[in-house]
Give the backbone structure.
Amino acid sequence: MSGRGTIERRPSRRTAAVHPLPGPPAKGPARGTRRGRGKRLSRLLSNSLVQGALILVALVWITPLAGLLISSMRSEGDNASDGWWTALADPSRLSLDNYGALLKDSGIAAAFGNTVLISVPTTALVVALASLAGYAFAWLEFPGRDAVFLVVVGLLVVPVQIGLLPVAKLFGAVGLFGTVAGVILFHVAYGLPFAVFLLRNYFAEIPREMLEAARMDGGSEWRIFSRLVLPLGRPAIASLAIFQFLWVWNDMLVALLFADSGSQPLTVALQSQMRQFGSNIGVLAPGAFLSLVVPLIVFFAFQRHFVQGVMAGSVK
């Protein structure tokens, strides 16, 4: 036994086949999950039953809009005698006379201008301030950051009706009550909490490595924010701009309280027309459609960015 040399056993081919060499690490489940969701969504939307249901829902939503458009192009006598759908049998009786008379009304024209003057600056201020605050809460270190952000989130649960009376007294004391500037400030103050919350959460999803690389290249915080964060956050910013514009454009409660006769928007002007003349469909129908068509134009103009923001949030 001792005279024999020690025999070294080598693994056979069969044993080596059982233990293969380590290969590249497998890809994480996140990308596969996203692709799977996208494929399932594509298959679902390609289903004929789903497409038929979506077309039916679209027709249900479009029918009142079509009725409002046709009613706005009919005479007051025709609207009083029968329904709007009867005009489909004789389209030659439709005209734009109601819109001409509406635009010649100085009160309605001024109200339309006030609506634009309130909605556009409010949307721009909310988007600009919320973008800056969202970036600060997401990527800048300063004392009390988390506490301040919790206060901002807590403001989301405060109903707008609670602040009407105190803010009205404050605006009356500083001379802003009954002015366009007062309505704009109120909308900006109550639109910022949700806007900051939305953009902060979106900006926080940006990979930290991208920002660190930009800082190592000598980029300042403002340059990183304007050249990197804003382009990446364009879908969320576009979605926020659409929602904010629609909220302010269609608002009547705040404008009814804080705007006087010289600064009232279109919603309040149409409400006063209905209160004075009852069912004055010749004024209300074209005015309502005019107030509706502008948000539709804004929505379709930013539709691509809005869809990108919705799809980005659905796969995270």
